[in-house]
Amino acid sequence: MAKLPRRIEENVWMKFGRDLLQSNNSEALDEQIKFLKACRDGNSALLEYLEPLLSDSNNLTGKDSTYVDIKLTEKEFRNPPEDTQEEIFENFKDYPSETLSYNGFWGYLIINLIRSEAIQASFLAANTGNNNQSGLVCLDYALSENAEAILVDATVRRVLRSMCNPAPRGKRIVFDDFVLGSSFWRWNFASRVSTALDRSLDMILNIMSVEMFGQISALLHANDSWLSHRNVLSGVVLFRESYNNIKVGTFKNYVTKLRFMSAWKAIEIQSPNDNFDDLVIIYQSE
Amino acid sequence: MEGIIIDYPYMIDGNNHFKESVSYDVTTVRLPNKGAIKVEHTLRGQSYIYDLIKDGRAKFTSSYFFRNSSERAVDVIELKDIKVFEQDGEFEIIAEQEINFDFSYNPEVWPNIVAYENIDFNVDDKSGLNEIWEIGETISIGKYSRIASFGKLSFNTGNVNYLIDTFCDPELPDGTLSVKVTEYASEGEKPIEINCSQDIYDELSARPIVPTPRTAHDGFRGSIITQALTAIYAHMSNLENKEDDIHPGLLEHMNSLEDDWQSDSGFCPALAASKQYPYLVEVLKREED
């Protein structure tokens, strides 16, 4: 029997984020500050803030546990090391993949990690960009007396993104911007390729680096979902292994040409090696 | 986008490569109380495709697309699982697939018939082909080529019907509609949304748009679509970037227009839309006469 992990309903989770992002509205700004204060005041305060969302049983669905037994530092939460990624993959790999694509599943997991003190609420606000500031510093800036509304809004958006809330960037955040989710999907696809090519998962993960998976994920969720056929993706991985100096734009161009080919050729059925050969032909014809 | 020229006879709705007696039909049903769907392929009429499937040199396949996670899967029907019926000059092959999956929603399904080896044959009266293919002509088809596709569930054919979702907005005044184009929608999503008033919605829902209008209602329905297409084409022609990150079906449709929609000048959305339904222009001409 397939597991049905507990999760927040997608529309409820989206509405929660959207309500916080209402702009040009002083009430909304007050609510944003209240939300950030809850993050600043610690796990209990954030859980108390979320209580109305979580206590309404209509907002949740599923019955099985949504939890993974890990404890992370702020740095690890922002950039999970390989062993943490492996733990997440091993823990959830048998769950229905539909569930793993829901923002509400990952949002609920983050809340459970906060509940169990596996992470601190302030981690959610950390800025890994050029500033590389800790969550507490970012929250203090946003909550300072002279903070502009735009800084408050940006901090709220960052917290929501860290909770896999789709309001700031759309529902595909789970595959790219939300690092625990994108880690899971990288391992998931690498595992399929490993089976198709009969090569070790470690070897495939080495080829399918975080950077390469970012490129693949962007293509997968735009117009090139053909890539997700196991034989096609495996052919692409073989190609990237042999031609690893190709620029991102050129790589994208080759994949698009392979998609055009799929109009008349069943690339989803031909072997990974045949797809590799077709990509080489495309490469050589440039 | 580069054009694709297929130089062998393949079967897809409306391309007229085959005689009328030859057809490929697919139905899908979600099985109650099971996380599964049943796909049934039916190939009728004598044709070269019929012979290839019967010999195991071509196979029925179904490609599945699960939209939320952009995952795809494919299933192939093997020779042992097909049923061949030949009687009194009637030819039929039926094959069923039951696909189990752990998704709560139905995938989009793209059924195909695929050549499983390199094929060479000479056209004869049993090939099932129209007169555009000459008797005695040699046809070569590469391994893994699609030789038939069932377009009904395909979302990248460029047929505009597969690109549009229609909604009723009871608050709109009678006779009005609005069109929203999300050109960057992903492959499994419909990039065009038509919101219309109740009367327009009823008109569009009443029955399908017919290729040749017989009544004022038929004409009215056609004109609604022409109006919507005009808005869509205007939106597309105003895009700064007319190639990258555009929904493939929408791009396919735009590229199929008689006029060059990517031209910086000279593209008229209203004229292009009216060419999609030339009968409307013909009707107007008759009125003038």
Overview of the molecule:
The complex is a heterodimer of chains A (286) and B (289). Helix content of chain A is 60%, strand content 1%. Chain A is mainly α. Chain A folds into 2 domains: 7-170, no CATH class; 181-284. In chain A, helix 2 crosses helix 3 (43-55) and helix 14 (248-261) packs across helix 15 (272-284). The termini of chain A are far apart. The relative contact order of chain A is 0.10. Chain B starts with 22 loop residues before the first strand and ends with a helix. In chain B, helix 3 (216-237) packs across helix 5 (269-276). Chain B folds into 2 domains: 23-153, Immunoglobulin-like; 160-288, no CATH class. Chain B is built from 6 helices and 13 strands. In chain B, strand 1 and strand 2 (36-44) form a beta hairpin. Chain B is α+β, with helices and mostly antiparallel strands and 289 residues long. In chain B, the strands form 4 sheets. A 4-stranded antiparallel β-sheet of chain B has the order 1-2-6-5, with helices on one face. In chain B, strands 4-3-7-10 form a 4-stranded antiparallel β-sheet. Chain B has a 3-stranded mixed β-sheet with strand order 11-13-12. Chain B has helices at 48-54, 198-206, 216-237, 248-255, 269-276, 278-288; strands spanning 23-30, 36-44, 58-66, 71-76, 82-87, 90-100, 108-115, 119-122, 138-141, 146-149, 164-168, 177-181, 192-196. The radius of gyration of chain B is 22 Å and the shape is globular.
